[in-house]
Amino acid sequence: MRSLFVFFAILLAHSEARLQLSRQSYMKLPYQFTNGDPTNPRYGLFQNAAHKAAFHTVDKILYVASARSTEKYLHIIDMNNPASPSILMTHVFDNAVDGMITSVKACTDTIAVTLTAADPVAEGHIELFTPYNRADRVFTRVGRIAVGVHPKDMAATSDCTRLVVANEGPVAINPVSGTLSDPEGSVTIIVRNDQGFPVEINMGFQQLNDRVVDYITNGVRYVFRGDHGVGIVNTFSQDLEPESVTISNDDRFAFVSCQENNAVLKIDLFNQRIIELYALGAKNWTSYNLDASDQNDAANLRFHTVYSFYQPGKLAYGVVDGKGYLVSADTGKAKTLTTAQHGYAFSDNTRARVAYNDGELDITTMDPTLLSQIQDNQQLGRVHMSRVDGYNIFNRIGDVFLFGGRGISLWDSTTMAHVFDSGDDLERRASQFYPNTFNGDCSNGNQSPTQQVDERSDDMGPEPQALATGTVGTTPVLIVGSRNGLIYVFNMRGVSANFESVHREGSTNDIWNNLYANDAAGDQMISDIGFVGAGDSPSGTPFVYVIGQATGSLSVYNVVDMPDIF
Ligand SMILES: *[C@@H]1O[C@H](CO)[C@@H](O)[C@H](O)[C@H]1NC(C)=O
């Protein structure tokens, strides 16, 4: 007995411990209550029942918002036992001028929710509430403040004295004129004083138009410039589309990702001014693997001499060895406007083989190997590439640029230098641990996850779109969620993100509709992740909550240090 114990002790000492996720609970959220009756919930796949969430650390309550224009729900969920969360109340936003909820933040004494306007070119709003009162079972609104057009994301300083809202201002049809309109992107800073949050600073980007040539030279994408022949002029500041915002841990700076533009704005929160707009540059895939074809029905990682834009869909802030870094989920985003939806047809992307067939590529200067891969649908033929970037002096495309970095990056938050890139780690780990669902989609309820394998490879591959940073013991960690339901755990020892584990929730052996009905569809189209440290966790064990937008689901996982003995 004793020798057996010693044997195990030696085994443990010699094997690596890994940070892994241990499932605590899984719940689907209702997207509708029949006739408004809370005892009559309706559930459904692809109903956007859940999108964003925020955890109130003192009250142990999770606020989960839907992304629906008809039922704008904020579910107030008891997390005293993360192994069995339950809905305490659902707050319904019923102001007809509002579009949908886009983000939620929980401060000690305030819950903030951003709402777009139903009118796509009108100002959105932020609503402020006192946190849910368990004793009285009330959730009381204390304020409603106009922000910019289409608020998309929000961040709060650590003391919650400032809220920063990124207003996307995307292209839409102006309902009055019936023509294309690209509202100005902007950032709203709301400053608290004794009366609440009345002081508001709206920061437009028009001042950046004077330096547009510099920005383009540095690599900022000015994607849709209008069509001057038909009188559509779209300025640089209109084309800047803020997507995600995060704040440095010293509360001095806000960072705003302009996703399509492949750029990050750094804002001084004390002096309320734009410090700079930084181009993020392009990733050189020459020494990394990727799968750029949706026609292999499996992982097919190859080398291609192509480039891609980082285009973060989500930013976070992390501290490693006392120094702050901006962390980005390099999702990718192409821009396509249609006459029906936007009043004008425009696309910044095309499949590589189509670009070749249309004579857009410089076949005299391009590498012959690359050209043959572009003509092969098993390789680069199907991939979506930019048709507005990569032009050479002969006015032909000489370099192939794809959308999205298919990974995560660390940026020095002082200089914005790119200090770490996860390379092809996300796709390689996915192909190794979950080959059956590699780069898969969740879009067809009558197909199974394995039938939808590889369908996103020609788009943006793993598409990381949710991030959370935290600490387990003394180890700084980064949790990354991908569109197709993988949750990666990295440690951030040194200025890098080192792979610990990857988890996929749910089954694969039935069609999505059946998996959903049986609570076995997992976390599909992960749209938000939060990390709750040991000190704030009711059980004393750090956990993450994961929101799946396609599955309208909330999952909770403990983050545990498990010996990797098998
Ligand atoms: C991309 O990397 C390859 C291999 O290191 C190199 O030859 C090439 O010059 C790089 N491209 C650019 C634009 O730096």
UniProtKB/TrEMBL annotation:
InterPro entries: Choice_anch_I, Mesenchyme-surface_protein, Quinoprotein_ADH-like_sf, WD40/YVTN_repeat-like_dom_sf. Residues 436-452 have a biased composition (Polar residues). Pfam families: choice_anch_I. Residues 1-17 form the signal peptide. Residues 52-557 form the Choice-of-anchor I domain. The keyword Transcription regulation does not apply. Residues 436-468 are annotated as: Disordered. Keywords: Signal. PANTHER family: MESENCHYME-SPECIFIC CELL SURFACE GLYCOPROTEIN. This is Choice-of-anchor I domain-containing protein.
